[in-house]
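Subgroup meeting minutes
Present: P.N., E.W., G.H.
Scribe: E.W.

1. P.N. recapped why we're keeping a running log of single-chain structure predictions: easier to compare across weeks, and new members can see raw inputs and outputs side by side.
2. G.H. added today's entry (174 aa).
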Amino acid sequence: FAATWSSAVVFLGLPGFSYASGVSALTWHTFTFWAPGIISIIIVAKRFRAFGESAGSLSLPEWIGDRYNSDAVTVLFAFVLLFNIMYVAAQFTGLALLFDALINIQFEIGAIIALAVVVGYVAFGGTYTDVVTDFIQGLLMMIIGVVIFVMVFVFFGGPFQLIGEMQAVSGNFG
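Output recorded in log:
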C-alpha cells in the first residue's frame, strides 16, 4: 500500500515541489510522512500481521472487519478507501507522464495503459497480486532511493553542496 500511495509523490511530485518551494518541502515531507510511517511500522506491523494471518484477512477492509467482527465495518471501510482515489489518480498521472517523457506515448494513452494493466492484474490475480507488486515496487523504490542518496555524495560532495548548486539554479531553493 505504501509503495502505491507514495511512488509518484516521492519520485515525481516531491522533487518538483521542492524545486518550487525550497528545501523546507523536503523537511516537511520527511518529518510528516516517512518518520511517522517508519515508527508506526516498527510499533504495530508485527501484531497487525499476526492478527491478519490468524483471521485470514487479505485486505485492509477485511482486516478491519475481522478485527471488529462486522461485515458492515468491512463494507464501510472499503467505501471509505474509495475516497483515496486522488492518490490512485496521482499514480496514473505519474505513469502517464513517465510514458510520455520516456517512450513518447501520449499522456491519455499512457494513463489508459496504466489503468488497464492495474485492473487486469487485480482482476486476474486478486488482492494478493497487488500486495506482491507493491512489495516489488517498494523494494525498487528503496534501491533507487539509496542510489540517489549515494549519487548526492558522489556528484555533489554531500547534501549541503547539492542545496548550494540548486540555489544557484533557482533562488527559491534554500
